[in-house]
Design brief:
Helices cover about 30% and strands about 25% of the residues. It is an alpha+beta fold. It has four domains: about 150 residues; about 100 residues, no CATH class; about 240 residues, P-loop containing nucleotide triphosphate hydrolases (Rossmann fold), CATH 3.40.50; about 90 residues, Arc Repressor Mutant, subunit A.
Length: about 625
């Protein structure tokens, strides 16, 4: 319970106690009942309460925590969620099984968002209220997490109050392609839904207007449609969305947007010179490579580093950034030195300690690694791109050209956009491309895995299509592995194995140690062992435990060298007859062959080795 409280508060969630087995808020010592408005996100008072009353349920104030819950009563026969969701994109998000057997889909939402109480029969929207969290119970059943995904941004298809009903999937117009200087592939229905929800209103409305002008709509027709469907009374940086709409319409007619088809494009006049062609007898080998980190990152390209929570993504990206800025080989791989801009969008205090820790480890002088510790909006070009342009100019005036820009993380940099939708992800990629073009720097994006980790990073497929290098971080037996899952132009490196090594930075005001982590390479042997499948059979586990017990009692000796032995003194070996006598009585089966079967299984897997009537475990527990 206390570990969960710590996890929840570290996420910034606002919690309060409820009565055991009930949804009612608990009572104060005075007898007055608490309210969900009394929720706090401070660990100490919550830990104190739940230590004294460990059977209390945990309530989550959704609005205060920046969350909204889609509560699906899937156990009810008349629940209409499955039919409602058909044709709509349900992104991977934090999911909980309720005590009643329903599903809680938990998304990020702003306190300014206003939602109706229901979506359809059997599906409620909970925002200005609360839900119970694991390990709470109700009617004798437990709440349990179904997934540990980061909460995704609330999808645009979730209705808001006073929304005009969204187009149904079957009513979606066909995708149109419009000449906007470069060809724009527009998903009309998705873009219209984003405009109605107020997501990236400026860019999406501009694209819709161009689309409609290209289809032959008049200005009067577009105005009539906009009054009904374009959310013209919503907030806007200019203060007047109708004025912006008039500007979009006027500009679209001035530029003469017209639909473009593949047939018409082939016949179009080409004003610029054609791209030169290359034939086999003209080809010469290109022996030099424009890498940033050899076999990992190309100069001036784009990469995505992704993985599940708590696999060290930010520590990995910071370690890589420091090596590039300092011109140090990165764990044996050559780098091209250059200035680095690191956009740390979350955890500013914690990130300061991380930066101090990595600098303390490597101790390079005058490292041009500039960290911006604040949220960043890479969805709307008018938001933070001007400031980034100024920062780039400041850094380059002092330290030369930028070699790397890190965006940590995509979810925060998307600034409320829908990472599963093509429109918002495409807008994000355009801004990243603009940063690359303006600076010549490589842009590395830190991202999360999807619910199904086998399918790579989460979000719309346009991200992977635009990515030159993709690095997946995984963790096995406490060891992290970085694996290049996509490499456009370089030969991919072998997986890089590392651990997060704790570093003490000092002592806080309570006398407790303040720590951070840094990346440390592990040996090939430790990496191979972490990937080795450990025995799962009950009797095999008994034998491993028996070995550990005997070794702990000093039975045995370091292995000798010679034929059939590993390097002398590397493993602790025990006489086989002593081992058998100690272990046989502990097996779950009295069958005389049980010991032999377990030994055979362990030796077949390479976990146990036997030589000259001695045995040892060829794993960490057996090494000296």
């Amino acid at each position: 319970m206390i570990d969960l409280i710590k996890d929840y508060t570290e996420r910034g969630w606002h919690l309060f106690p409820c009565e055991p087995g009930s949804k009612k808020p608990a009572k104060r010592n005075t007898g007055e009942r608490l309210s969900y408005h009394d929720a706090v996100n401070k660990y100490e008072p919550l830990a104190k309460h739940f230590t004294k009353r460990p059977t209390d349920n945990i309530g989550l104030n959704l609005e205060a925590s920046g969350l909204v819950c889609i509560d699906v009563d899937s156990y009810k026969p008349d629940c209409e969620f499955n039919s409602f969701i058909q044709g709509r994109d349900l992104p991977p998000t934090l999911t909980q099984r309720s005590a009643s057997g329903g599903i809680h889909y938990i998304f990020k939402a702003s306190a300014l968002d206003q939602f109706p109480g229901t979506i359809c029969k059997g599906v409620d929207i909970k925002h200005k209220g609360y839900i119970l969290l694991e390990p709470s119970t109700y009617n004798g059943n437990k709440y349990q997490w179904e997934s540990d995904d980061e909460p995704a941004n609330i999808p645009s298809w979730v209705p808001r109050k006073d929304d005009t009903p969204l187009l149904q999937p079957q009513e979606a117009p066909p995708v149109m392609h419009i000449d906007l200087g470069s060809t724009l592939g527009l998903d009309f229905n998705t873009t219209l839904a984003s405009v109605r929800a107020g997501h990236n209103w400026h860019m999406n409305t501009r694209d819709l207007v161009a689309h409609l002008v290209g289809k032959g709509f008049t200005a009067e027709q577009i105005h009539a449609m906009a009054e009904k469907d374009f959310n013209l009374d919503g907030p806007n940086s200019s203060g007047n969305r109708r004025w912006e709409l008039d500007t979009f319409i006027k500009t679209a007619f001035q530029k003469g947007y017209q639909p473009i088809t593949p047939e018409s494009a082939l016949q179009a006049e080409v004003k610029a010179p054609t791209t030169p062609l290359l034939y086999p007898d003209q080809a010469e080998p290109i022996l030099s490579s424009s890498y940033l980190v050899k076999r990992w990152l190309d100069a001036g390209a784009m990469s995505v580093v992704y993985g599940e929570s708590n696999v060290g993504k930010s520590f990995f990206a910071l370690d890589l950034s420091y090596s590039i800025a300092a011109g140090l080989p990165w764990h044996g791989y050559k780098v091209k030195q250059g200035a680095v801009l690191y956009l740390a969008t979350e955890g500013s205090l914690g990130f300061t300690n991380r930066l101090y820790g990595v600098h303390k480890k490597y101790q390079a002088a005058n490292v041009p690694l500039a960290v911006r510790r604040a949220p960043v909006d890479l969805l709307k070009p008018e938001a933070d791109m001007p400031e980034l342009g100024k920062l780039v100019a400041e850094i380059e005036s002092s330290h030369g050209k930028l070699a790397l820009i890190v965006v940590d993380t995509l979810s925060r940099a998307l600034a409320g956009g829908d990472e599963n939708g093509s429109v918002d992800m495409t807008s994000f990629i355009r801004n990243v491309d603009a940063l690359k073009a303006a600076t010549g720097a490589h842009v590395l994006i830190v991202h999360h895995s999807g619910k199904d980790t086998s399918k790579g990073s989460r979000g719309h497929s346009s991200l992977r299509a635009a990515t030159d290098s993709e690095i997946e971080l995984t963790k096995q037996e406490g060891i992290c592995f970085a694996t290049a899952t996509k490499q456009r132009d370089q030969e991919a490196a072998e997986p890089f194995a590392f651990i997060l090594e704790s570093q003490q930075l000092g002592i806080d005001q309570d006398g407790d140690a303040v720590t951070t982590c840094t990346v440390k390479t592990v040996s090939d042997e430790d990496a191979a062992e972490a990937k080795q499948k450990m025995p799962s059979g009950a009797n095999q586990k008994v034998l491993l435990k028996a070995y550990s017990q005997l070794r702990g009692e000093g039975v045995g000796k370091p292995n000798p060298g010679g034929t059939g032995w590993p390097e002398a003194g590397k493993y602790w070996v025990i006489p086989m007859d002593v081992f058998r006598n100690h272990a046989e009585g502990k097996l779950s089966s009295t069958n005389r062959s049980a010991f032999k079967q377990a030994v055979d299984a362990l030796t077949a897997s390479g976990t146990m080795q036997i030589n000259e009537d001695f045995m040892w475990i060829a794993a960490k527990i057996g090494r000296i």
